Amino acid sequence: MTRRAQHVLWHWATPQAEAILATRDLGAILRFHRTVHGMNQTELGRLLGYDKTYISHLELGKRSLDDLGSRRHVADSLRLPPHVLGITDPADTDHRAMLQFGESTVRLAEIARQSGHASEAVAELWPLIARLEARVEDGHTERDVLHLLARARVGLGVALGNVLPEERLSTAARWTAKSIDIARYFGDPSFTSYVLRMHGNELRKARLHGAAVDRLLHAVALAPNQQARAAVLPLLARAAGTLRNQPLFDEVMRETDQLLDQTEHTSLFNPYALHEIRLRGLISTGRIDLAIQLVDQDSPVPTTTVAPQWRVIELITVAQVRLAADDCGGGAQSLHTAVDEAVRQRLPHQLQRIVRAAGNRLPDIREAAGHALDRMRHEMAA
User: Fold this and answer.
1) Are 349 and 380 contacting, i.e. CB atoms less than 8 angstroms apart?
2) Closest listed residue to residue 227, CA positions, set 257, 191, 184, 269
3) pLDDT tens digits along 337-371
């Protein structure tokens, strides 16, 4: 979709439109609509069923729409939120209630995902997105609707990235990608950084490593403060490591270490999660000896800020290091625990990592993880 096409489709969502709608000035609203669509007063009059002179009088404030029917007609014709023209009806009340409910749904879905219940997050977000997309397709593209839709799509994509097996992770990346145009259109660097951060991480999981690094670098560049940078850097480190870009990985980890004492810890930005990211990056960039040394040291203790799935992720990565050091007993112990946790939290992607890590050296664990993965696939297919 071109930027011009977006401008016409989402014209009531722009910051300029938001300011004009807040004035409730019908004349300014009509002029704005004509400017966006490249219309003259005659063409606008044809759309509304009024003559050019009447449109001119409305724009100049010489005439007003005093009856409810006329105001409703203009609101419907221009796809305006009805309350802007003083109309408060059941449909508009339902819409505002839906927005309030939608905000709560997105927040609760994120809490559910971070608590290890990504399937529940998916179930909550599907109906909300369907309802919002139906409203947009009907031409109602208010700013609050588009903003909520973008966040809901990102939330759905990230939740799907937890519950889908690797061969279907491109679906998660496609959902997060659906929010990029909206974010860029709003021109809010913080929100755009957030969307690019989430999309970049799903691209990494879908093994589109170069594209992932590109999106995440852009997200870092747009991050407005240290907290926002801290949210992106761990994901960029993971993507750089997977891409085997050692200079970028080391540079990002250095900055991440510097920010640890300066920024609030989150479910991703904390010593425990960063320990796993460093281990995996060292493995990917061919520095097994350093990874073994790091595992032999005391690892950070998980805190309440760590998402449950990170325990599974860390167990698998530690097992990979143990097996690289020919410690089959230690590797088997970590993977055995990881299988149980991955099944309990329904993490098919992590089961696939376990299958690869176990390989031919730990056939029993590989078989157990494979059977659990097959059961999940059958359940998802059903």
Assistant:
1) no
2) 269
3) 999 999 998 899 999 999 999 999 999 999 999 99
